[in-house]
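EI: anyone free to look at a 69-residue chain?
SC: sure, send it
EI:
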Amino acid sequence: MRMRTHLHAELIQAISNLLKHCPHPIHFYKVKAHSGINGNEGADACARTCYDEASALLAEILRPMGWTT
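SC: here you go
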């Protein structure tokens, strides 16, 4: 069986390296969307904000390396 290389393998490796060398703890949480849990809409809004901010930061980091997001 032939192994395929992931389309974004280099990007994934760059993100992995950033996470490994970050001086601050990073936590990932699974939050189920649209489940009727109190505060869920606030959690969704927070997740969107974090995603937008992280995407912008990642773009700034990767742009000098020739990557685009």
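EI: The helical segments are 9-21, 40-62.
SC: 👍
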